[in-house]
Amino acid sequence: MTDLSQARWRKASRSGSSNGGCVEIATNLPVVAAIRDSTRPEEGVHVLSRAAFGAFLNDVKAGRYDL
């Protein structure tokens, strides 16, 4: 299990009240990135490798998930 006690959470730059987004991320951890719903942080966290998170962000920027 990943220790998240030192995680510094920040709201994702594209997450805002105007679009209903409630995403917080912690990227200060040494090997992983963590993602959670800021309105329900007690319901859990998605933890993934920094490489996988970087690949996901690249795909988002490339428009691979645009509907």
From TrEMBL:
It comes from Micromonospora zingiberis. InterPro entries: DUF397 (IPR007278). The lineage of its organism: Bacteria, Bacillati, Actinomycetota, Actinomycetes, Micromonosporales. Pfam families: DUF397 (PF04149). Residues 1-20 are annotated as: Disordered. This is DUF397 domain-containing protein. Residues 7-61 form the DUF397 domain.
